[in-house]
C-alpha cells in the first residue's frame, strides 16, 4: 500500500469511529417499556434511521404494514437482521383475520424489509378455488392440526384450509387473504411438524437489509 492509500484508510477508519460514536450518542432510540430499540430502528424522527420506522405503543413495539396496520413485534435479532411479528388475531365467530379488510399483510416494497423464507403459512376458511393452487390443502395439511387443536383456529373448521412454505418462489412482501378466498391465516417460524402444535413458534419472520455503511473508499489508485 502506498502512503496516500494508507492515509485514506486511516481517515476512513477515524470517520467510521466518529460516526458510530456520534450515532451511539444521538441516534439510538430510547427504550420502549422494557424493550431496547436497536439501531437502525426508529421510533421517532430524532433517532435511528427513518427507513426503519416502528412504533412504541404503551410499552410495546409495533411494525407498520404498507396499509398502516400495526403488528406487535415479538422479538428482534440484530445478529440475523430479522424480527418476528405476531400474526393478526383470528376472530373466532367469523374465522377472519383482524387484517382481512386490508387484504392480509403487505409490506412497502420501497422499504428494506421482506418476509423471510422461514415462515410456514396456514390459510384458513378457503373457497374451493384454492384447490387449483399448488398449496397443500390435503386432509392431513398442517392447517388441520391447527384447527383441531388450537382454540384460535376452532372457528375455522368447516371449510378448506391449506399450508405452504413461504419460500423464494413466493411474493416476499405479501400474505394475502380476502373474503371469497381464504379469510384467515397464521404463520409459524421454522416449523417442526413433529413438535406439539402449542409449541410451534407462531409469528411472521421479517428480514431487513442493513443501512449502507457510511464509508466508501474512493479514488483508489
Ligand atoms: C378429506 O376428508 C373429507 C371429509 O372427512 C372426505 O370427504 C374427503 O374425501 C377427504 N379427502 C381426501 C383427499 O382424503
Ligand atoms: C401435505 O402436508 C402433510 C403434512 O405435512 C404431508 O404429510 C403430506 O404429504 C402433504 N401432501 C402433499 C400432497 O404434499
Ligand atoms: C429478503 O431480504 C434479504 C436481505 O435483503 C435477502 O437476503 C433475502 O433473500 C430476501 N428474501 C426473500 C424471500 O426475498
UniProtKB/TrEMBL annotation:
PANTHER family: WALL-ASSOCIATED RECEPTOR KINASE CARBOXY-TERMINAL PROTEIN-RELATED, WALL-ASSOCIATED RECEPTOR KINASE GALACTURONAN-BINDING DOMAIN-CONTAINING PROTEIN
GO terms for cellular component: membrane
Subcellular location: Membrane
Superkingdom of origin: Eukaryota
Domain Wall-associated receptor kinase galacturonan-binding: 29-85
Pfam family, one: GUB_WAK_bind
Signal peptide: 1-24
Membrane topology per record: Single-pass membrane protein
Keyword entries, A-Z: Signal
The name this protein goes by in its record: Wall-associated receptor kinase galacturonan-binding domain-containing protein
One MF term in the entry's GO annotations: polysaccharide binding
